[in-house]
Amino acid sequence: MKPNTRWLSIAIEHARAEGAHLYGRQQDLSSESPSAHQALAKRIWWCCIIRDRLLSLGVRRRIQIDRESFDFGSNRRLNHSDLAGEVDGSGVYCKKAKISLIRILLRIVDLCVSLTDLLNLAHRLEFSRNGDSEQWLPHLQQVRTVKEALRMWHEVTKSEFSCSLKQLRSASKYDEQRKAVAVQLHVMYMYYHSAGIALAHYEILLTTMVIPTGTPYTILRPSYLSKLFCELQDASEDLSDCLDGLIKEDLIPLLPISTIALIVFPLIHHSLDLYTTHDDSYTAKVLRKSRLDALTEAMNKFEQTYDGVEWVKSILRQVIDLGESRLSEATRDREWRRNLSSSPAPYLRIAFTIEFSLSRSYFFQEADAPAYLKTVFKDANPIMGRAEPTLMLQPIFGMRDTAEALDEDWEKLLQLQSAAEGPMLGSESTATSVATPMDDYGGFFDLTVREDTL
């Protein structure tokens, strides 16, 4: 057991020993004034839940407080009344800032509850390839439920904090009060976007390994995978934009250590984009570089602030070392999302190598792969039933230079890209929407595929 997980387990064990998880049974539900002991027990228990969820989200370990061990439905969540005593009397924050920080914390609490089912899905991959409909349909229904919960959380949060974001972005300079609110607000959204990445990974694996061939869904699978890779990239871009806003105000050193692992996948995704996309407009290219720049700068600033960042960077280097050469030029001319919609195994290999390495704190070897993932590491294209050895031999899309940028000079990577990218187009292509066939299945998977994502 790793130190952070061990300390969390000790905290949960002590909290249970003191009956903190039973705070709801001891409180009269009609009363809004719990005893001091009940209030303290509730706060301690929800601290354990928050840490449990955020640790699992970052380093891909199983949660320790699930729905079987704690009834989230019948026990009241942490709420404003529990934290009302925090508003006045702070020697650090003004009343207005304290209220904002409490509101952010309560939204994180709600997000952590929504993450319960997602993290159980993502880290308990107990299914076999090509099962019958009785096996894979429940998995897909669970995915829909989790997606809806995250969507609702985002809608509520966006409406609650839209004014706060506008005020922060319009401020010419952050004072100490605004800094605290800005950091926590951006961290909250980083957790949300990281949840989107984790969910997309699970869906890609589910779609690749579990959905049986020879069903009507087989026709829709490439389109659905294309949609998932677009969602994956959107989440990465949104997360890197959060970092970019903090970098501009020199707030990266204030980020909690739990955010370090969150930027690993966006760093990989933006490296893929930088090296495999050549048909974007000049503006899009500059934006891609800016986002990757922000991620790399954040990782280097983390190393100046926290111990233990070097091993995260070492995982990135070793993942990059898996592939000694770049994809062929023919493959590089296409965006990685388009290519992997028909052959997702190379990306799955990258994704689960990183997830395993983060979880175990040592670099993944193929012998470590569970039975249901061994196909990903032996067969480059389980969907189509044919091998593509070129992709498997070169799974990292020439990202060695990204590792060098982490260690040396970021400008080196930008110069390499500028020399390789060729002519820049002045405008983006116009896309048209095309409805997917098999309406019954298309409705279930919420598919409306755009031509430029295929």
Number-wise, the strands total 2
N/C terminus separation: 43 Å
Strand content: under 5%
| Strand order in the largest sheet | 1-2
Radius of gyration: 23 Å
Number of domains: 2
Element-by-element helix/strand order: HHHHHHHHHHHHHHHHHHEHE
What proportion of the residues is helical, as a percent range? 55-70%
Number of helices: 19
The biggest beta sheet is recorded as: 2 strands, antiparallel
**Mean pLDDT reading:** 72
| Parts with pLDDT < 50 across at least 5 consecutive residues | 127-133, 323-333, 379-454
Q: What structural class do you assign from the helix and strand content?
A: mainly alpha
Anisotropy-based shape = globular
Description:
This protein has helices spanning 3-17, 23-26, 36-59, 80-83, 95-122, 133-170, 176-209, 217-248, 264-276, 282-305, 309-321, 329-332, 336-340, 345-360, 374-378, 389-393, 400-407, 410-420, 439-444; strands spanning 433-434, 449-450. By secondary structure, the chain is an all-alpha fold. The protein folds into 2 domains: 3-76; 95-453, no CATH class. A two-stranded antiparallel sheet has the order 1-2. The protein is globular and about 60 Å long. Residues 127-133, 323-333 and 379-454 have low confidence and may be disordered. This is Transcription factor domain-containing protein.
